[in-house]
Design brief:
Layout (H helix, E strand, L loop, with lengths): L1 H6 L8 E4 L2 H10 L3 E5 L22 E3 L2 H11 L4
Parallel strand pairs: 1-2, 2-3
């Protein structure tokens, strides 16, 4: 996968994997050395939702409770015009 992206000029450091599932998304992103953003839609609820739990909590570089919250954080990081 990454070789195909690299052929298009996209490097590993250009990718921010953004997803909900720690098991299906963030654990594999960790294995591939990708930065990741966890959209924790189940914030405030116990358990791992509909996906299996992971033995260890994967590293997530960012965490938000919704995509809207992520957008607001991104907007806040941009220079004002």
């Amino acid at each position: 996968m990454l070789d195909g992206l690299r052929a298009r000029g996209i490097e590993r450091g250009d990718i921010l994997h953004t997803a909900q599932s720690l098991f299906h998304d963030h654990a594999p992103a960790n294995r591939h050395g990708l930065a990741s953003c966890w959209i924790r839609r189940s914030s405030g609820r116990d358990g791992s939702g509909a996906t299996p739990s992971t033995a260890e909590t994967p590293r997530c570089d960012f965490r938000f409770d919704s995509l809207a919250e992520m957008v607001e954080a991104h907007r806040g990081s941009l220079p004002r015009r």
